[in-house]
Amino acid sequence: MQTRTTTLAGFEAWEIGTDDLSLVVIPELGGKIASFVHRPSGFDFAYVNPHTGIVRYPYDAPYLTTDCGIGDLFPAIGVGVHGDGPWKGVPLPDKGEIWTQPMVTRVEGEWLVSTCSGLRFPYRFTRRVGLEGNQVKLSYEVENLCGYDLRYQWSLQPHLRLEGRLHLRIPAGATFLVDWSRNGDFEPRRRYRWPDGAVRRSGARVDFSAIDGMDGNAEKLYLTGMSFGEVALEYLDRGLALVFGFDVRNTPHCGLWINREGWPLDREKTRLCAVQPCNCLSDFRETSESMGAIGVLPARSTQRWAVTMQVSSC
To answer: Could you tell me which CATH class the domain 2-313 is placed in?
Structure first.
């Protein structure tokens, strides 16, 4: 893996690469991977909102038009309040605390290591990024710094380009929930068979595995019941697939954000897709916790997990 310092959109950054891949990481933006290029084709998987570009937002900012690159959501996803322990009633920032924090970033051997600490909650969050051929390796470590258990949500947040004909390949037998939809077509918290178990209010059956064209809709789905952790986003017109790998024993679910120019509601629309390995079943903490889908970091303990993103042909 080659490493060098660079700049992107006026931000100091690290570029890491192999013969197959090039990534640009911006420490100031929560360690955001703002560019993810497949070198043989020149295709950049990372989506950047064309209406805003790459921008730094203040802590606790609303996450409405901040679509940019690949980052992490921790210790929360949606807006809410912490429900227990000494933090009961403490507000949860929209999409958590990581994305608006600068991270201390350094090279350690074959890893680019980024670290930050909680502001409202007592933890240390570390992410290691490594490259091997056509695969990105993300290794996580979170340490609870206090004597109380800390409940949390974590999700990868990869904003990916939505163009041409796309196909989502999911392990057989998986089900999904609709956490939010632009038109309110689906019953909340109901489990549907993947990929075509859901029907819109119009009576039209939806096949969520096929993404083709902009229809003004947007949905946030959560996959569950997967026999193994592998979700592939296939760019059929390019012959490329981005395959996400994770261990369902510690990352049991996977969010899907499919935005076909249906979001935001009150400003310039965007088009993107996100495959989000995670530990929860809703953006909203109370909803996810009511379904038993929440992480628990015991007092003064450390938890680790990993995700891979591999580029292959399809």
So the answer is: mainly beta
